């Protein structure tokens, strides 16, 4: 046996400042709200103080976005808009180390994920959408598609920079201006993105970034001069937003929770499936709306697969997010940690068999050991509710029809995975699974060219790809 030596990334690279201000009409200004303190969930230390928006700041930001839309951005030829968006894409790539370290500090995700997934994919979203800006007439959405106007966007804490990119890039490419609210616990990378946007010389008011809590989000989506609302977060808040915009004529897209089935057939290459299952549920500590949180395994291979899974999961290293050897970082907040622990106790109380990785956990910070529940039945809370943590629920099936019925037995419908050797079975299953994204023999792959979005309580509308443009255009 040998141990990994620590391989920490230097936190100096993050260029952390003691305080951050909001970005309004092209300037960094003090918000009128009570400043918030954002913490490092791996150590519980305060990282920085961040100013937040008041009601009147939201109004000022929407007015600035409206002016920028009317006077500049909404009239600018697509080829010109593209130049700005390309510049943002390049600058995100140039500052990728800084952004990755800052993201890991503020969010708790392992540096190898922020470095290899979050930041490069954020940059890729800007590159991809820059390419569309002058080709919207050819997107297959009808002749002469027009921008909608001002978009109000609210994002969660699980992929702070990446969600900002998912929201901003298509909005800007289509000629809209934006007011964006990052999540309360993870505002920092969005404000560095604001710095990039300022340096890219985007006209003032085209992008405004207002940190704050849920009330700032509610104020923004309820503002009468917003034309489009885009929200990613919980189904509960999504429903409130849907009620608040009903009857207003605002266009709405909602990207909410999920409880994805990852379905493994007996002919699947099991070792490869194990890697996909681990990536499906332990990537980003399981704080992923499309996480493969329900493993459906064919009964004949269930014991073998579970043994292999335990062996593999026991090797995952949980700890310092800035260590390049860390596989599973910190849970984003104490609140989320409490929620995970509560759902795990419900699983035990309802009679599922709990297995917990023997990995050591740090003494401070918010951490949760990778957990697997076997013997889960469909009525249990751990099979129905989104845990949003490193917890896998394992169910079994005998026939493909049963797999489909169980996979679709959920109020959600965001993603699903299929593991089998047979191409025909992949297509048969994909046709029947009610999920916006279906991965075959892989999981959690993200690409700006592929549309992403849900069915049922996972929301509606698509983000990414040609289809995602429609959410930001009057077609
Ligand atoms: P959330 O409460 O829905 O928060 C998402 C965003 O909406 C945050 O920026 C939040 O601000 C803001 N917000 C809260 N209340 C609002 C309101 N009434 N009107 C407008 N905006 C509002 O989600 P959460 O608290 O971060 O997480 C709760 C659960 O949501 C998780 O456990 C998970 O199940 C699910 N979730 C799903 C996704 C996803 O990608 N689909 C992402 C994150 C969470 P604050 O930051 O101040 O709360
Ligand atoms: Mg934080």
Automatic annotation (TrEMBL):
Keyword annotations of the record: Oxidoreductase
Residues annotated as catalytic:
255
User: Which Gene3D superfamilies does the annotation name?
Assistant: Aldehyde Dehydrogenase, Chain A, domain 1 (3.40.605.10), Aldehyde Dehydrogenase, Chain A, domain 2 (3.40.309.10)
- Name one molecular function that GO assigns to this entry: oxidoreductase activity, acting on the aldehyde or oxo group of donors, NAD or NADP as acceptor
**Keyword Oxidoreductase tagged:** yes
Q: Which residues cross the membrane?
A: none
**InterPro entries assigned to the protein according to its UniProt record, in alphabetical order:** Ald_DH/histidinol_DH, Ald_DH_C, Ald_DH_CS_GLU, Ald_DH_N, Aldehyde_DH_dom
Q: Does the keyword Chaperone apply?
A: no
Please give one Pfam family short name.
Aldedh
Tell me where in this chain the Aldehyde dehydrogenase domain is found: 29-474
In terms of PANTHER family, this protein maps to: ALDEHYDE DEHYDROGENASE-RELATED (PTHR11699)
Family, according to the entry, reads as follows: Belongs to the aldehyde dehydrogenase family.
- Output this protein's name: Betaine-aldehyde dehydrogenase
- Identify the species of origin: Actinophytocola xanthii
Q: What is the lineage of its organism?
A: Bacteria, Bacillati, Actinomycetota, Actinomycetes, Pseudonocardiales
């Amino acid at each position: 046996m040998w141990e990994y030596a620590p391989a920490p990334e230097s936190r100096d690279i993050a260029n952390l400042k003691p305080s951050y201000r909001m970005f309004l009409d092209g300037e960094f200004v003090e918000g009128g709200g009570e400043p918030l303190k954002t913490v490092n969930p791996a150590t519980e230390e305060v990282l920085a103080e961040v100013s937040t928006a008041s009601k009147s700041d939201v109004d000022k930001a929407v007015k600035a976005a409206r002016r920028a839309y009317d006077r500049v951005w909404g009239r600018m030829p697509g080829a010109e808009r593209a130049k700005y968006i390309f510049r943002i894409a390049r600058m995100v790539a140039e500052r990728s180390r800084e952004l990755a370290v800052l993201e890991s500090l503020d969010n708790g995700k392992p540096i190898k994920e922020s470095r290899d997934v979050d930041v490069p994919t954020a940059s890729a979203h800007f590159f991809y959408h820059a390419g569309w800006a002058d080709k919207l007439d050819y997107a297959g959405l009808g002749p002469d598609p027009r921008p909608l106007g001002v978009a109000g966007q609210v994002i969660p804490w699980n992929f702070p920079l990446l969600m900002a990119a998912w929201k901003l890039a298509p909005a800007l490419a289509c000629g809209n201006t934006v007011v964006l609210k990052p999540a309360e616990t993870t505002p920092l990378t969005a404000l560095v993105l604001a710095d990039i946007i300022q340096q890219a010389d985007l006209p003032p008011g085209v992008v405004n970034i207002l940190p704050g809590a849920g009330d700032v989000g509610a104020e923004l989506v309820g503002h009468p001069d917003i034309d489009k609302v885009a929200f990613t977060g919980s189904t509960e808040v999504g429903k409130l937003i849907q009620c608040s915009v009903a009857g207003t004529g605002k266009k709405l897209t909602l990207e909410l929770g999920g409880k994805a089935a990852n379905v493994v057939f007996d002919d699947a290459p099991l070792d490869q499936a194990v890697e996909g299952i681990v990536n499906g549920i332990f990537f980003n500590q399981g704080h992923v709306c499309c996480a493969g949180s329900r493993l459906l395994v064919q009964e004949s291979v269930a014991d073998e697969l579970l043994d292999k899974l335990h062996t593999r999961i026991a090797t995952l290293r949980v700890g310092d997010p800035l260590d390049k050897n860390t596989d599973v970082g910190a849970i984003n907040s104490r609140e989320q940690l409490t929620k995970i622990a509560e759902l795990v106790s419900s699983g035990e109380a309802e009679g599922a068999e709990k297995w917990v990785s023997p990995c050591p956990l740090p003494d401070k910070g918010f951490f949760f050991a990778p957990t697997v529940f076997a013997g889960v039945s469909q009525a249990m809370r751990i099979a129905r509710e989104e845990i949003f943590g490193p917890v896998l629920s394992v169910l079994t099936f005998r026939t493909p029809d049963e797999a489909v019925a169980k996979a679709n037995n959920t109020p959600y419908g965001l993603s699903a995975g299929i593991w089998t050797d047979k191409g025909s079975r992949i297509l048969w299953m994909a046709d029947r699974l009610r999920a916006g994204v279906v991965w075959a023999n892989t999981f959690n792959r993200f690409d700006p060219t592929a549309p992403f979005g849900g069915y049922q309580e996972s929301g509606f509308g698509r983000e990414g790809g040609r289809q995602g443009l429609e959410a930001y255009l009057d077609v």
